[in-house]
Amino acid sequence: MSLADLVNHAVDKERFHTLDDYIAFCALYLEFAIVGDNGLQAQIVSQNEGHYQFFQYREDGSHNITRPINTRLMYTAENFMAAAVRFRETFEQLRAAVQATAEMRENLIRVIYTVQQSIGAALDALPAGQSNRARKVNGDLFERFIRVLITSLEVSCVSGTMQVPVRNGAGIELFKASYQHDLLLSRNNELKIIGSVKTSSKDRIDKVFMDKFLYNRLTETALRVCQT
Q: How far apart are CA 12 and CA 141, in angstroms?
């Protein structure tokens, strides 16, 4: 598969709805970027931290350089599919309330990292003028990926906008404020957890704390808020 095929695949969000969709794309990207004569112009090794690498594309990728790839977490094409099988098995065990071992947790982290970085790295081949589009698509697909994983555990998880009442000092509702959230986890139709999913925490790390403070203050609840 060519780089153009991979990029066209990655920007089409309709091609990512199931765990199999994500794993299949990741396998294709790893075959392109890491195996043999791979169509890359160079693999650049970080001078200060040698386990970080950057892929540089050829002319068909505008000679763009990808985000840093942590080779301690990124699976290779040779071992990714076996890791994906263990990944699926782990989710089956989690549904059966089996406690994850350290090895299982490590594999979960590495598969999620490998899948997401494969999508992000493919989108990094978009021309410079489309960098905002690349970030938006990458973020949307990561949010969906996390929802797919959570729902596979038979937990109700959706994204959406909540209407939270704002009251005055006398308790009279003045209006409703709209809060958009990436993850809304429910049990028996009762909201239990609000989640935020971000590919970068650079400007958003404080948002989850503000969300928790405002939501709990306005609704007079102690709802849990988490960030991924």
A: 10
